[in-house]
Design goal:
alpha/beta; six-stranded mixed sheet; 6 strands; binds iron/sulfur cluster
Length: 274
């Protein structure tokens, strides 16, 4: 009688569990690979060899005592901690209420990138929570995502400071973006989204070091480290400029993103105006 290699590995795993009182682990990919291995003949000698091989496979797939591979959320945590303690821009470290790291699904297919926290984000510690953020959330929902499905971050993790007594927000300087950019690069490296969306020309400058007008930049695909990058208007621009034609441009960019992600697009979505 022949016995599949997977059965032998499972038997070996059970032996390890019984003898060491430990819970051995094997990845789904390793188990799937073993499932494809041809059956092993039932001759006693061959079986003994196969058992030994299976145990070797288990030990090589899951070296004993080795901690499991951290998931993306776990990989983001040490970056978040470094950001929380960061004082590389002393003027911003002094003026911020808190750092604003990023929010959303670490396994997201799509990652939105803005420029910097504003006053609301500085207060709440979350990007895009003010009026512009509410519009971004509306755009995300119109794409048939929940806000929790995507990942949202800024180039800068601290609110750009304002002269005392003045209100509103200012754009980050090129030097501030240059200083903070490595944190975003690390976030993107961990998340590895299928598509990046840069919101506004400042975010593009911070991410790519490239200056241009939105007329030149938006509506076509760019790339960051091999990841497709769509550039569109910042939602704050749409709040200032309520022209339906401008809103439609952003929505057309989002339809491009959905197509790139192979997401189904309904007729209603095609005809949608923000
Ligand atoms: S903006 Fe970035 S680099 Fe500058 S202090 Fe804040 S976290 Fe650090």
């Amino acid at each position: 009688m022949a016995q599949p290699a997977l059965d032998l590995v499972i038997a070996a795993l059970e032996k390890i569990r019984e003898s060491n009182n430990r819970l051995p682990r094997a990845s789904m990919r390793a188990l799937a690979q073993l499932q494809a291995v041809p059956a092993v003949p039932a001759h006693p000698l061959a079986l003994r060899t196969a058992h030994a091989t299976a145990a070797d496979v288990v030990e090589s797939v899951v070296p004993s005592g080795q901690p499991p591979t951290p998931n993306k959320a776990e990989l983001l945590e040490p970056i978040r901690e470094r950001v929380r303690a960061c004082t590389k821009c002393p003027h911003l470290a002094c003026s911020r209420t808190q750092t604003v790291f990023g929010v959303g699904n670490p396994d997201a297919d799509v990652m939105f990138i803005g420029e910097a926290p504003g006053v609301d984000e500085d207060q709440q510690g979350e990007p895009f929570v003010g009026r512009a953020g509410q519009l971004l959330t509306k755009i995300i929902k119109a794409m048939n995502f929940a806000r929790e499905d995507v990942y949202i971050a800024n180039i800068l993790k601290c609110r750009p400071d304002m002269p005392s007594g003045s209100f509103g927000n200012r754009a980050p300087t090129p030097a501030e973006m240059q200083t903070c950019r490595p944190y975003l690069v690390e976030q993107i490296d961990v998340i590895q989204p299928k598509v990046l969306v840069a919101l506004g020309a400042v975010a593009v400058e911070g991410l790519l070091g490239m200056r241009g007008t939105m007329r030149e930049l938006r509506g076509r695909w760019h790339a960051y480290n091999g990841i497709p990058l769509m550039i569109t208007y910042h939602p704050a621009y749409l709040l200032r400029n309520q022209a339906p034609s401008e809103k439609r441009k952003v929505w057309e960019d989002m339809l491009e993103v959905l197509e790139r992600l192979d997401r189904p697009i309904t007729e209603r979505q095609r005809n949608y105006f923000l």
